[in-house]
Automatic annotation (TrEMBL):
<dbReference type="InterPro" id="IPR011042">
    <property type="entry name" value="6-blade_b-propeller_TolB-like"/>
</dbReference>
<protein>
    <submittedName>
        <fullName>Uncharacterized protein</fullName>
    </submittedName>
</protein>
Length: 97
């Protein structure tokens, strides 16, 4: 329990959104460099990794269920289709400023 890198743990969560379609939480787990989904159903004991090895800070989801992830190191926003680990830069990506 507590801080760590197991699927039942988080390390510096920076943002969360509710996915009403799957009744789950999508969490930006910054220090573990991943975005995870946790079921809101009682009895859920661990998360599922949606995107790994990612610089993440903030999250948003649109009506088409694309996930937008902002990164604080590369100063960019990437769009991800759920189930894919490669995102498309939609804003920034040219450094700080």
């Amino acid at each position: 329990k507590g801080e760590g890198n197991g699927l039942h743990q988080l390390n510096w969560p920076t943002d969360v959104l509710i996915d009403k379609e799957t009744d789950s939480l999508i969490i930006c787990d910054a220090r573990n460099k991943r975005v995870v989904r946790w079921s809101r159903c009682s009895g859920a004991t661990q998360g599922e990794i949606l995107i790994h090895n990612i610089d993440c800070y903030g999250l948003a989801m649109d009506e088409q269920r694309y996930l937008y992830v902002s990164g604080y190191l590369k100063h960019e926003v990437r769009r991800y289709k759920l189930g894919e680990n490669i995102g498309t830069i939609v804003a920034g990506g040219n450094g700080q400023g």
